[in-house]
Amino acid sequence: MGKWIRRIIMLAVLAVFLFSVTSIVMILRQYEESDRLYSQIAEQYTTYTSRDGSQGAGTQDAGAAAGQEAPEAAPISVDFQGLQAVNGDVCGWIYCGGTPIDYPVVRGEDDTFYLKHNYDGSYNAAGSIFVEADNRPGFADSNTIVYGHHMKNGSMFASLDLWAEQSFYEEHPVMWLLTPEQDYKIVLFSGYTTSATSDTYTIFEGPSQELDAYLAKCREQSDFSTEVELDSEGRYVLLSTCAYVFDNARYVLHGMLVPVDSAGGVPLR
After folding, report:
1. What string of H, E and C letters represents the secondary structure of the chain?
2. What pLDDT, on the 0 to 100 scale, is given for residue 117?
3. What mean pLDDT is predicted for residues 94-114?
C-alpha cells in the first residue's frame, strides 16, 4: 500500500512539473511572438528620418542651412492610417532612441484587455502599451497614464527603471510621443518606485493648484535630478510598469508633453 501511495505522489509531482514546464514554454513562445510582431510592425509602419530629436543633433534641412531655424519634428514617422485600419484603438506611438521603447500605443474600453492582447487585438501575455481608460482621448488631460508590462526579456516598459541611474537619464532625457494630430517630446523630469495604490495614479483633467502640488511631490521623489522647468498649464504623461521590490510595486516616469512641428512624424509646415 505504501508503494502505491509513493507512486501516486511521484506521478502527481511529475504531472505538476510537466505542466509547469509546458506553461513556461508556452509563455516564452508568446514573448517571442510578441517581439517578432512589434519588430515587424515597426518596420512596416514606421520610418526613421534624418532628424535625431532625442539627442538634439540631426541633419539640417535647406532652410536651416540658409540661416533659418529648422522646425523641430519627431525623428520617426508613423503610418497611423495603416495602423488604425488594423485596430481603431491605436492612438499613438512611443519611441525612445537607444532603448527598446518603440511601440504603438492603444486605448481600450477598460484597463484589462490590453494587459494580455497585442495592439491588433490578438491574445498574447506580453500585452501592449496602453492608455488608462479613464483618461480622455487625445492625451487631453493634464495627466495621462500609460501602462506597459515589465517583461523579463527587456521588452515593453521593462527599461523604465534604468532611469533610476542619473547617467542613464542624462543619456536619455527625452522620449517621443507621436499621434495622428500632433507629436510631442516627452521631457522627463521624475522617476521613482511607488505603490500601485499610491496617489501617483491621480488623473487631473486640467491645471489646478492640486496638480502643481502633485508635480512638485513627484519631482521631490525622483531618483534622478534635472533642471527641467515645469509648466503649470502644460500636459503630462505618467509611464508605469511593474517593479519587484515589494508587493504591488511600480516604477514610474513622469514627463512633460512639449508639442513639436509634426504629426505622425510629418512636418506641419
Report:
1. CHHHHHHHHHHHHHHHHHHHHHHHHHHHHHHHHHHHHHHHHHHHHEEECCCCCCCCCCCCCHHHHCCCCCCCCCCEEECHHHHHHHCCCEEEEEECCCCCCEEEEECCCCCCHHHCECCCCCECCCCCEEECCCCCHHHCCCEEEEECCECCCCCECHHHHHHHCHHHHHHCCEEEEECCCCCEEEEEEEEEEEECCCHHHCCCCCCCHHHHHHHHHHHHCCCCCCCCCCCCCCEEEEEEEECCCCCCEEEEEEEEEEECCEECCEECC
2. 95
3. 96
- Quote the pTM value: 0.83
- What pLDDT shows up at residue 72? 85
Q: Determine the average pLDDT of the residues in 92-120.
A: 96
